[in-house]
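Internal tracking record. Fields below are filled automatically when a chain is submitted to the structure queue. Please do not edit lines marked as system-generated. If the sequence contains nonstandard residues, flag them in the REMARKS field before resubmitting.
Queue: standard
Priority: normal
Entity type: single polypeptide chain
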Amino acid sequence: MSLIKKLVAESIGTFWLVLGGCGSAVLAANFGGDGNPLGIGFLGVALAFGLTVLTAAYAFGHISGGHFNPAVSVGLWVGGRFEAREVLPYIIAQVFGGLVAGFVLMMIAQGNADFVSDSSVAGNFASNGFGELSPGGYSLGAALLTEVVLTAMFLIVIMGATHKLAPAGFAPVAIGLALTLIHLVSIPVTNTSVNPARSTAVAVFAGSGALSQLWLFWIAPVIGGALGGFVYGWLGKGEVDREVSGEQDLPET
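SYSTEM-GENERATED OUTPUT FOLLOWS
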């Protein structure tokens, strides 16, 4: 598969992740106001992120590997599952796809006369944050630990699910469920990133508050992804692994 096709697949997949996941948070999580039974809440948002990864991995995994996440690309490289020369192009493609989705989501949200974007509010436009911008008021240290640990575990699940000896064809299901679980744990802490492209995609449109804290949601997931890739790479050393090129990793986000 040509690199151009891989990058297009990564852009579209990340677009879908941001539009579906962040879109559910912005448009549907609190639809109708507090107490409205039509709002999907935390559980619905968590499921939306998991479903975007699951569906996109099945759609694009055979083309690009279905990373849709810079932390995943870095982690797979550290774990020996991805070529170093493709890491930066993948990250650029992922960020681009996410930003396009953020723009589309903002255009949709602004179609409602009641839509308000306030950069001082935690979770504004599905953005990530810590301290006063954490949905639950969690500190920088708590946010850092959460993002590092959960991203590391995400990579371990991804690498285990896509191992040659794992049940064939089920990797996207395991990965999507893992991302759902991650959101159920961490939405109150950081509004859940574990994906720098997802964080950047909405921070650009959420205002100065989210942008001022965006650095954490690059550093922590990338560290976590590298840590998870290293740990699973060590665990799987000597096992029969896939020979990985971009189209053979079947994970995401």
